[in-house]
Structure formats: C-alpha cells, structure tokens
C-alpha cells in the first residue's frame, strides 16, 4: 500500500526528484530555508525516514550521506492513482468520475498515454500494435 507523502516529505522529495542527482541533507536544508525556518536535524530525520520507507537510497560520504530517489515522481503519482482506484467498490465509476475532473490538457495526456500503452502491448515485438 502506498502512503501519501506528508508536506515536509513531499518538499524534500520534490527537490530530490527535480535535482535528479545524489544530494546531501545540507543541500536540501539550504534550499528549504529559502521558504521556511527549519532545523538541520529536522531535514536529516525526514530524509532518514524516507530512506527507511524506501523512497530514498543513500551512500555514506564521510560522516554524512548522499541521498538519491529510488523512483521518480511519475511512478509515485501512478502508485497513488492505482491505490485509490483499487480500493473503489466500483472501479469503472471511479474512473468515469476521475476523467470528468480532468482538464482538456489532462485528457489529451491520457489519450497520448493510451496510445503509448497500446503500442507497447501484445504484438509482434516491434512496438507496433498486434495484428
């Protein structure tokens, strides 16, 4: 089961995802401090918690760690959507309601995604739809 990230967890993961490289607690702290007053130990605890939960991997660097995302934001969003959809007592109705909430741009992105999935589906192994 995927649990939604808390506000501070999301703020940390957003930076890790956007920077797309191993980061230190100090780097994340300094960026977060541009928006809020926050202690080094708080950021360190959040990043350790994210490591324990499997969202981050880490590698020792001296007495500190460098943290890196295990997956990207798209995978996290997909897992949240899948979890929400799978607990519905009427998945078709949930999808209809979800699609009804989408903007025109989101519906177009959905159409693009469906085309990609159809191209990667069963076929002759060439990436073209099945015959």
From TrEMBL:
Family: Belongs to the BlaI transcriptional regulatory family.
Protein name: BlaI/MecI/CopY family transcriptional regulator
Any Pfam family the entry gives: Penicillinase_R
InterPro entries: BlaI_family, WH-like_DNA-bd_sf, WH_DNA-bd_sf
Record's keyword terms, sorted: DNA-binding, Transcription, Transcription regulation
Organism name: Streptomyces aureoversilis
């Amino acid at each position: 089961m995927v649990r939604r990230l808390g506000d501070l967890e999301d703020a940390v993961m957003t930076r890790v995802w956007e920077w797309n490289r191993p980061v230190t607690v100090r780097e994340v702290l300094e960026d977060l401090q541009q928006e809020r007053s926050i202690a080094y130990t708080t950021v360190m605890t959040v990043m350790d918690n994210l490591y324990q939960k499997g969202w981050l991997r880490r590698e020792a660097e001296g007495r500190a760690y460098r943290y890196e995302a295990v997956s990207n934001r798209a995978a996290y969003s997909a897992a949240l959507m899948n979890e929400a959809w799978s607990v519905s007592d009427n998945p078709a109705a949930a999808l209809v309601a979800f699609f009804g909430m989408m903007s025109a741009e989101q519906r177009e992105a959905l159409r693009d995604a469906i085309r990609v999935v159809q191209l990667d589906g069963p076929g002759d192994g060439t990436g073209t739809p099945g015959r």
